[in-house]
Write a structure and sequence with these properties.
Oligomer: heterodimer
Structural class of chain B: alpha/beta
Helix content of chain A: over 70%
Distance between the termini of chain A: 62 Å
CATH architecture of chain A: Orthogonal Bundle
Number of domains of chain B: 3
CATH topology of chain A: ABC transporter involved in vitamin B12 uptake, BtuC
CATH architecture of the largest domain in chain B: 3-Layer(aba) Sandwich
Number of strands of chain B: 23
Structural class of chain A: mainly alpha
Number of strands of chain A: 0
Distance between the termini of chain B: 22 Å
Radius of gyration of chain A: 20 Å
CATH class of chain A: Mainly Alpha
Largest interface: A-B, 25 and 37 residues
Number of helices of chain B: 17
Largest sheet of chain A: none
CATH superfamily of the largest domain in chain B: P-loop containing nucleotide triphosphate hydrolases
Shape of chain B: globular
Chain lengths: ~300, ~550
Amino acid sequence: MTDFIAMLADADFWVAVLRIATPLIFGTLGVLLCERAGVLNLGIEGIMVFGAFAGWLTVYAGAGLWVGVLAAALAGAAFGALHSLLVVRLPLSQHVAGLGITLLATSLAYYAYRLGFPKVDSPPKIEAFQAMNWLPVPILAEQTPLTLLALVLVPLIAYVLYRTPIGLALRAVGENPHAVESQGIDVIRLRTGAVIAGSALMGVAGAFLTLAAFNSFFFNMVNGRGWICVALVVFASWRPGKALLGALLFAFFDAAQLRLQQSGGGALPYQLYLMLPYLLSIVALVIAARKAAYPQALMQPYVKGAR
Amino acid sequence: MNYGRTSSSDLQSKSSNPSEINLAVTALSLQHISKRFGSLIANDDISLTLGRGEVLALLGENGAGKSTLMNILFGHYVADSGSISVFGETLVPGKPQLALARGIGMVHQHFTLADNLSVLDNVMLGAQSLLSLRSQRTAAREQLNDLSQRFGLTVSPDAVVRNLSVGEKQRVEILKALYRGAKILILDEPTSVLTPQEVEQLFGTLRHMVAEGLSVIFISHKLDEVLAISTQIAVLRQGRLVHECAAREATKESLALAMVGRDVKRVQRAETDHTAPKSVALSVRSLALAHESSRVALSNVTFDVAAGEIVAIAGVSGNGQRLLADGLSGLHRVATGQILLNGRAQTMGARAAIDAGVARIPEDRQHVGAVGDLSVWENAMLPRTHEARFSKLSWLNRGGARRYTDALVKQFDVRLSSIEQPIRMLSGGNMQKLILGRELDGAPSVVIAAQPTWGLDVGAVSFVHEQLLNARARGAAIVLISEDLDEVFALADRIAVMCNGRLTTARDATEWSLQSLGLAMAGHSDSQPSKLEAQHAT
C-alpha cells in the first residue's frame, strides 16, 4: 500500500502515464471520428504500424521530424481513402474491409522495411522528438510536442463536433444518414471525409511510437494498441473528453503494472502483471458500456436512392 | 383568402422575392414524369400543377407511385423522363439541396431525424454551410421559437428527439422544413401515426400555412382526411394519374372508385350475438411484463376474449402492443399476473403456445413472420416442423411440406411463380396471405393478429379481414391489435385501448366513438365513451 502511495506521489510515474496515453489519445480520436460518421475502422492496427514506419522512414531519409509526422498522417489518410472506397462507396462489409486494411498495411510496412534494410542487427536509429524542457508545467515538460498536440486535439475535436455545422452533420450521419441526405448534405462525401481524417490521426498515433516514444522502427511495436483504441471509444461513449479519460485510465493501469513488475519482484509470473491493464480495462468497459449509446447507423451502409 | 397579408410575413427574408408574392402564381409544375424500377413502372407520364396557397391531395393505394413521385420531386430519385419547375424555373433533378434551396420541404413518412440530437440540432442540420467555423445557435433558437409559435407547433428546442412522441417528431419535421424556408411542403402519409386529435391539430397548422401563402402536397390513402383538408385532389393508380378534380366536387365513393379502379367490396361482419353463451378462450389477468425490447412496460393488463369474438386492442403503436403480442405468444416469462388459455395457465415458450392452439400473425411480417431467404415452403411449415407430417426422426419430410404448401397457396390465393422462391420475393400482400394461411391452419382456438393489414393494398386488406371473420365464425377467439381505427370498427366486437402499457376496459364497439377512442389513445383513460359525442369531423 505504501508502495502504491509512493508511486502516485512520484512525478516520473505520471510522466510515464502521459507518455503511454499519447498514442491511445490519437488513435481513439481517430476511431471516434470514423464511428461518429457510422463507419467501423478496424484498419487502425495496421494503419498505426504503417504510420510508425512511414514517419520513421521519412525522418531517416533526412527530413524533419514534423515532416515525418505529416508523412504518417498522409499515409494514414491514404489507407482511410481506401477503406472508405471499400465500405462507404461500394459498400462492402466494414469488418472484413477493416481487417483487410490491417493485414495489408502491416505486411506492407514490414515488407518495405525488410526490403530497405535486409541485413541489420539492430534497428537503425533516428534523432527523435525531445522533451519540452522549456515548458514551465512540471509533468508536461517531460513530454514531447506530440503529447501536447494530442492534448490540444481533444478540445479541438470536441469543439468541431459540438459547435460547428460540420460536426453536427457528422453526429447526425452516424445516427441516421437519411436525416443528413434529406437536408441536402452528401452522405458519401461526409463519411469519406470523416474516415480519411480519422485514419490520418491513426497514422500519427503510430508515428508517435517511432518519433517520440522510441527512436527506431521494429516489428510488433504497435502490439495491439489499435484494438485498445477501438474499445476505448465504446468506453468513451463516442465523446472526445471521455476518450481522453479512457486513454489516461488504461495508461495508468499499464504504467502501474510496469512498476509492480519491478517492485513486486518475482512473487508472481510477469505475464500476470502484463494482463492487468487489459483485465481492468475489460471491467471498466463492462461498467461503462452497459449504457453506451451506439451511433445507431454504425456499420449501416448508405445507398442513395435505395428503397 | 387574403394573400396580401403574406408579403409582410414571408417565411424567410433571405429568399423573399417580391415577384413571387403574386396571386395567380403556379408554385409547382410537374411535366410528363416517368420512372421505372426494373420492370416496374412506378410513374407513367404524370403531369400535375400546384398553385400558391393550395392543398393538393395525392391519393392512391400502396404502390400506386405517390412516394416515388415525391421522392423525384425532392431529388432523392431521378426521373427517367419529364421535368419539374418551381415558381416558373426548371429544377435540376437528383439534388435534394437544390430542391431545398428552391423552397421544397418534405416530411417523410419515415421520419428523417437523428434520434441522438436535440430538436434544435435537427432543425439546424444542413442549414449552414459545412465550412462555417461556428454554429449560429442563438439565432437559430430564436427563429425556431418564432416559427413554432406562429404555426402552433409546440416542441421544446432542447428536448432530445429520442424522447419525443411520434406526434412531436412530426412537428419537428415540419419545423425543419419551415426553418429552411419551405414554400411548398410535401407531407407523405402524415396522419398514419397520429391520434384523431393530433390529426385535427396538424390540419389546423396546415390551414394556417396555406393562409400564409404556402402550398401543400398531402399524400394519403384516407379519403375522409383528403376531403377535409385539400383543395385539389389527384388520384394515382399503378403509376398513372387516373383522376383529377377539385375537392368540393369529390365524394368518398368517386375517389374510392378512382383509387381502386373497381367497386370496393366491403366486408360484412355478423352482428355480435349477445345472447349466445360465452366460453372464455383467452383470459389475461393483471398481467405485468417488462422487457428490454420495449420502451414501455405492461402493467395491470386485464381482458377476456370469448370463443367467436374479436377483441380489438386499439392505440398508437409503440405503447406496449408488441410486448403484449409477444407475451401472449409465449415469448416472455410473465412477471406477475396470469394468461389463461381455455382455463389453463400458459407456460413459457413459443412451442408451448403453438401447441396450446395460439396462432400469431406478427406485426413485422418481414422479419418476425417469415425468414426472408428461406423458400416459401420452408416458411409455410416453420411453426410446425416437429409435427409428423413435416418431419420424422429429425428428418425433414420435404415432399410433405411441399404438398402442404401447394394446397395452402391454392386455398389462400397466394400469387407466386414457385414455392421454391425465397419468401422475400413475394409482395407484402402475398406474404401476409401465406402467413395467414399457415397460422389459421389447424383451427387455432386463439388468434393474435398484430397490425395484420399494415401496408397492404385494398384488395389484400379485405381478404385478410374476411379470413379473420371466418375464423371468428368458426369459433376462434381473436385479439386484433391495430392502430387503423377503420379496421377496428369494421371487425371488433369489443374494443380496448392501449396507452403507455396500460389497457382500458374492453367495451362493446358500439359504445365507442372516434372521439372517445382518440382520447383514450392519448391516455385519458377515465373519459367515459359516449355515443352522443360528436362523430368524426367529416
